[in-house]
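User:
Can I borrow your eye for a moment on a structure tokenisation matter? Would you put together a sequence-and-structure record for a protein of your own picking? Please set it down just below, with no commentary around it:
AI:
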Amino acid sequence: DVINYLIGVSAVSAITTRIYRQQAPQATAYPYVIVARDTGNPTHHLSGTSSVRIDRVAVTGFASPTTGSGMAAAESLGTVLQQALDNYRGAIGTTGTVSILLVEDPEAWFQPQDGSQRAAYAIEQVYQIEYPSITPDPTEE
């Protein structure tokens, strides 16, 4: 649902609609975005487990280093992703009401280790997503 939400945000889709879960297909054209759930936990209280889950989701925007403006392109994509996600509260797909907060936003340069990989600029952002556990996981498609 997060992927469909991002594709529906006009500022994001103006840059790319190539948004994938966990990994992009081989030789995917730049720019693109990967959404991957890092962790997910139910919320526990002294009285038991609540009906709220809190997941950490990494959203990474990739841009080509060969365009001459690779890092600037990655930063631009990172900015629109952050504007779409940080402090979002509302419905996403069939998940119901969610709350999304940015918790980390490091920059990265992916240097290929061998000829089988491509170099890329990337902006990774890690978000905390709270949602009702009785509804589908918002990171699922």
Notes: Strands lie at 19-21, 32-45, 48-63, 88-92, 96-104, 107-110, 120-132. The chain is about 20% helix and 45% strand. The first strand starts at residue 19 and ends at 21.
